[in-house]
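Internal ticket - ligand job 325, PBG:
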Amino acid sequence: MSWPASRPRRLRSSAAIRRLVAETTVAPRQLVLPLFVAEGLNEPAPIASMPGVVQHSADSLLRAANQAVASGVGGLMLFGIPLHKDLVGSAGTDPAGVLNRAIAAVVAEVGDATVVMSDLCLDEFTDHGHCGILAPDGSVDNDGTLQRYAEMAVAQAAAGVHMVGPSGMMDGQVAAIRASLDASGHTDVAVLAYAAKYASAFYGPFREAVASSLEGDRHTYQQDPANRREALREVALDLAEGADVVMVKPALGYLDVLSDVAAVSDVPVAAYNVSGEYSMIEAAAAAGYIDRQAAVLETLTSITRAGADLILTYWAAEAAEWLTG
Ligand code: PBG
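stdout (C-alpha cells):
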C-alpha cells in the first residue's frame, strides 16, 4: 500500500489548528465605510439597488458615523448628493455645499476616533454627471478639471477632512491636489489616490445611490478592464505625484491587479469592494442562494489575501462587529 508523502489535511483537522495557521486575518481597523449624505432629506432614504444602504440626512449621517466608529472600523468615506447640479459642479467647492458641511459635522462628531475621508470628484455635482468639466466639444477637459479638483481639495481640507480620495482618473490629479493642499497650508491632509480605477459595470448601484445624471460612459478616463500592465503605470505616476495610499477599484474582478500593485507599492494599498459587488451578494443571499455572512467574510478575506491593506466596503460596520463579536 502506498501512502501520501505529505498530508496537508493535518493542518485543517480542527478549528483550533486552522485558526493557528491562518495566513490572512481581516481586522476591523482596515475596513472603511462609505456613507452617502443627501441635501434636503429629513430622514434617511433607502437605495433600492443596495438593500441595507441609505442616503443619509444630516442627522442620520452622524448616527451612522458614531455607530461605525463604535463597531471599530478604521475610517469613513463620505459622498455628497447636492440638490442643485450645474456644468462645473459648483456645489463641490462651495464651503456650504452638502459634502463640505457633512465633512465638518462628521469631523466635529467623531474626528478624533477615526479617519474621515471624502470623495474628491465632480460627478455627483455636475448636471452632465461626468467626473470633470467639459470642453466645448463635449469631451472631458483634463487640465481644466485639475483646476476644479485643486479648489475642491482646499474646500474639503478647510472643512477638516483627514484624507481626500480623488476618484476622477484625470491625468495629474494627485500632483494638482497635493500642490493646492500644500500651498494652502494643509500639508497634513493625506491623498488616497484611486490609482487603478476601471470603467466597470459594477458601479451600477452607486449611480442610483448618488442620483447620477450621467448619460454615456467614462471610457475616456477610467481604465479598460482588459488592461493589467496599465495599472502599474497609473500607480507609478500616482506614487511619483505624492499619493499616500493607492487604490484599486473594483476589487473582486481585479484581484490580479491588486496583487500586482501590492507587490510594487511602497505605500499602503486599498481596494474598493464596490456597489455592484455588494448588491450581487445581497441579492443572492436574499434569494437564499448563498450564506450571506460567510460570503461577505470570504470576500473580505480574499481581497486582503490578494494584497489590500485597506478595504472600502459597504459591509464595514457589520463585518467589524462580526469580527470582534
Ligand atoms: C466617482 C465614484 C464612483 C464610485 C466611487 N467614486 C462612480 C463612478 O466612477 O462612476 C463607485 C463606487 C461604487 O460603485 O461602490 N465619484
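Auto-summary: The mean pLDDT is 97. Residues 142-159 form the longest helix (18 residues).
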